[in-house]
Amino acid sequence: MSTIYFFLSILKLVVIISFIFILPAPSAAIDTEHVGKRLNVPASYVAAPYYPTPHGGWVADWSESYRKAALLIANMTLAEKTNITCGSGYDMGRCVGNSGSALRLGLPQLCLQDSALGLRNSDHNTAFPAGITVGATWDKSLMYARGVALGAEFRGKGINVFLGPTVGPMGRKPRGGRNWEGFGADPVLQAVGGALTIQGVQGQGVIATIKHYILNEQEMYRMYSIVQPGYSSNIDDRTLHELYLWPFAEGIKAGVGSVMAAYNAVNGSACSQNSYLLNGILKDELGFQGFVMSDWLAQISGVPSTLAGLDMSMPGDGLVPLLGDSYWMYELSRAVLNGSVPVDRLNDMATRIVAAWYQMGQDKDYPPPNFSTNTQDATGPLYPGALFSPSGIVNEFVDVQDGHAIVARNISRDAITMLKNVNNTLPLSTNSSLKIFGTDAQKNPNGINSCSDQGCDQGTLGMGWGSGTARYPYLDSPMDAISSRASNVKYYNTDTLPSGLTASSSDIALVFINADSGENYITVEGNPGDRTTAGLNAWHNGDALVKDAAAIYSTVIVIVHTVGPILLEEWIDLPSVKAVLFAHLPGQEAGQSLTSVLFGDVSPSGHLPYTIPHNESEYPASVGLVYFELGQPQDTYTEGLYIDYRYFNAHSIKPRYAFGHGLSYTTFSFSNTEITAVTPLTSTPPARPAKGSTPTYSTTIPPASEAYWPAGFNRIWRYLYSWLEKSDADAAAAVASTSSYAYPAGYINIQKPGPPAGGAQGGNPTLWDIAYTISVTVTNTGNFSGRAVAQGYVQFPVGIAYDTPVIQLRDFAKTNTLARGESEVLTLNFTRKDLSVWDTVQQNWVVPSVGGNYTIWIGEASDALTLGCYTASLGCRSGLMSPV
Ligand code: NOJ
């Protein structure tokens, strides 16, 4: 063995050993009260085989892109095709993911980059408010505007693929670490936020990635490792369709170019190789035309993941990165040559990727990357993950911010959710005597970007931690903004109330508290992503700070920056606590967005995108975090459809603050409500359209020479290549002619017509037929200008054969700013799908009672529904008793 190979083997061993030791160890931080041990995948939860992968290209909207892609693919060699389906390795380029190229044919390396709220690890970018903040606006135009701005920034930096939006996790688990990346604990809120983000981003020519597919509801134990499989989310088919799949279906309907397969397993089978989820649901039922990428290092096999429908491996490495190993690249070339992966499958993988590139117009004038996610310096290694890398210019500091700060600020402002406001305490006068407490009111003294991927909770909390973050170009903190507006301010930059304070009756205390969470690879203050140690309480003794302030000051206003629900019970009913504002995660625009509400430039108009309980025991036990020492942690969705408000309503638990709650400085009336029937319903949707034609190619195994290393090629150690040594390629080709591969159980290679529930992107197109439209006149009846949200919840007819949550959000609309006395007509639409349930036997969306009487409730919160419209009589009534 040569010295260099010996050296590499030792290195490999060291990396493997260190990986074993950095695995999440059972930690003292685990809260055993809320973290339960689980056993095996329960018998009734099955991941059935579904083969083959449906070819892409059968949807009319994509046919031109597929036509162009097919021309390119037909001219590609085997090694070029396998190269474009895989990343070049961990840290092997400027972006967080860098696919292989086919430069001979004009296809560049694709740059894939986080995050869903702005450019991760970059410069001269906007740090937008997080998804949960966007959800709290309930404003479709702002959701879209943020997508457009994100798309412009990603394009400006030369990024081909935007790694967002996040619509999973949905927030099933209140302690889940990444709920804040998405838009709220409801499928429709997630779906609308996700789809509008996709439309905005892709309108700029950037491929969006909807993630994480699917049921990645907890951070701990999400990844497969050498010693432990990632947890299995065990779910029934109806719950999957009606809750967690819903936002993905809407994203696909919006034309999303890419889907990221999650780390975890579903019903015992890893998402990155779960043929039922990828081939069956995503590509057949939902008619997904783009490509499926793995989450980073989520691929756990070569041939099985290929056959199950994975199209791109990211970042390309095998389970343990930086060894120069891959399940694909040269291994995929070999697998095609030896006949274990059908040529047909590789052609479809490559075609899907190239078609998405054409679909966004990236073949014309698309800029190459001009930044590096690896360093803030101008120059550095071009392949930081390589053992020896050439260096060069990596950051060109292109300013992509444009006027996006305004979009960001408007979102942060219109998300602010007023939970309580006794005696019109808010808004404040700028002359008030303000005593301000809490480190959350001011920037992190160590620097706003001092913690990598925001992996700390110091100073104003503008976002959670992990890959879903951006560096702040600046942070307009609450104190910056308050001190520039108010004249009589004293700030105590501490989370402990100083002793010896005396209050005068005119003093108003503003207390800033927060609650953080993030991604599992960083542990902050004992929380490994999920809120294990902190629970649902405010961090840094926030509860004590509020209580201590309330003991001295007669007027206390609590301002909360938070990733999700927190418990308020220790202080919410104290007489001094007069007002509470949830400012969610505002990104860089934390300051002026807040002062414009505090000082009454605008009325708060945000509404809760989740329920706030009195205490954690009000949730079903099954939504606690799972924890297991050995084997696969099992996370079984026994609560079914009943998460968040659906659960509280089903069990008649009145929460502290209901989903959708949010107060205003003014009041609104809803009048002239009209319901109109549009498309008549039938029990099941009309027959789906047949699939259109898809590209056809030769299915003959190409000659081994298509995978030979080019002569004289200068290799970079650890970089992943798709070529094989001549001897290996020839040997693989020889195997193909002498033996056949044992495919997985259930494998066939005959394309199917597709299920009745499919037929277009998102599913059967008639699912989006509008069944009923409701229009309502919203009038500002108070003394302040403001914006109202009309939330539309469907109640299914009584007596149907399906157990269904009493109310479910199906559409919403927000007024413009209405002056006193001003009115606006809002329109909400209710589709066939909105009025259907997923029937597991028929495998279709079924209207459970055609002609039955649905009640569609319209109101400003899920627990304030007094206006109902009836589909049987086509009449609406006000002054009703709220159904919950
Ligand atoms: C893992 C995260 O789960 C995913 O959201 C992210 O896009 C990738 N890492 C790349 O950073």
How would you portray this structure in words?
- The chain has 884 residues and is α/β, with parallel strands linked by helices.
- The protein folds into three domains: 43-375 and 699-732, Glycoside hydrolase, family 3, N-terminal domain (TIM Barrel, Alpha-Beta Barrel), CATH 3.20.20.300; 417-604, 3-Layer(aba) Sandwich (Rossmann fold); 668-687 and 765-877, Immunoglobulins (Immunoglobulin-like), CATH 2.60.40.10.
- It is 22% helix and 16% strand.
- It has 18 helices and 30 strands.
- The strands form eight sheets. The chain has a six-stranded mixed beta sheet with strand order 2-3-4-5-7-10. A six-stranded mixed beta sheet has the order 13-18-17-16-14-15, sandwiched between helices.
- A hairpin with a 2-residue loop joins strand 8 and strand 9 (269-270).
- Helix 2 packs across helix 12, helix 3 packs across helix 11 and helix 5 (140-156) packs across helix 6 (187-203).
- The longest helix has 20 residues, at 3-22.
- The radius of gyration is 27 Å and the shape is globular.
- Mean pLDDT is 94; it is low at 1-38.
- Bound molecules: 1-deoxynojirimycin (NOJ).
- 1-deoxynojirimycin is lined by residues 96, 114, 163, 211-212, 295-296, 467.
- It comes from Glonium stellatum.
- It holds the Pfam family Glyco_hydro_3_C.
- Pathway: Glycan metabolism; cellulose degradation.
- GO terms for molecular function: beta-glucosidase activity.
- Keywords: Carbohydrate metabolism, Cellulose degradation, Glycoprotein, Glycosidase, Hydrolase, Polysaccharide degradation, Signal.
